[in-house]
C-alpha cells in the first residue's frame, strides 16, 4: 500500500488515522510518521505531543522542524509544547505547569514501542 500521499498531509490527518483506524497497519505507519516528525507518544494518557518554535502550529503540509526538549534552538526563540487533545479533537498548546506535570511521564517515539496501544 502506497501511503506517500497520506504522509504528505497535515499532522492532524495522521493523528486522525492513528486514533480511528485502530489495529490496522496504517495506524502503525501513521504513528511511525508522527514519530519521524518529532511527535512523542505518552503511554499513560495515550496522547501525542511535540515541541516546536513558538507560533509554528501552522497548517502547512511541511511542519517546522521539532526541537529536542531543553534545546533553546536559535537565539531569542521561544519553544512551545503542543499536544493533540482527544476530547477537543485538535492540537492545543500546553501551559508551562501542564508541561512540567507531563515531563515525568513516560514519553517515547512510537517506533520504539513494541506494540500498538490497546483500548
From TrEMBL:
GO BP of this protein = regulation of DNA-templated transcription
- NOT2/NOT3/NOT5 C-terminal domain location is 10-93
Region feature Disordered, mapped onto this chain: 51-75, 100-119
Give the compositionally biased regions (Basic residues). 54-64
Q: Name one GO cellular component term.
A: CCR4-NOT core complex
Keyword terms: Transcription, Transcription regulation
Similarity comment: Belongs to the CNOT2/3/5 family.
What is the name attached to this protein's record? NOT2/NOT3/NOT5 C-terminal domain-containing protein
Species for this entry: Euplotes harpa
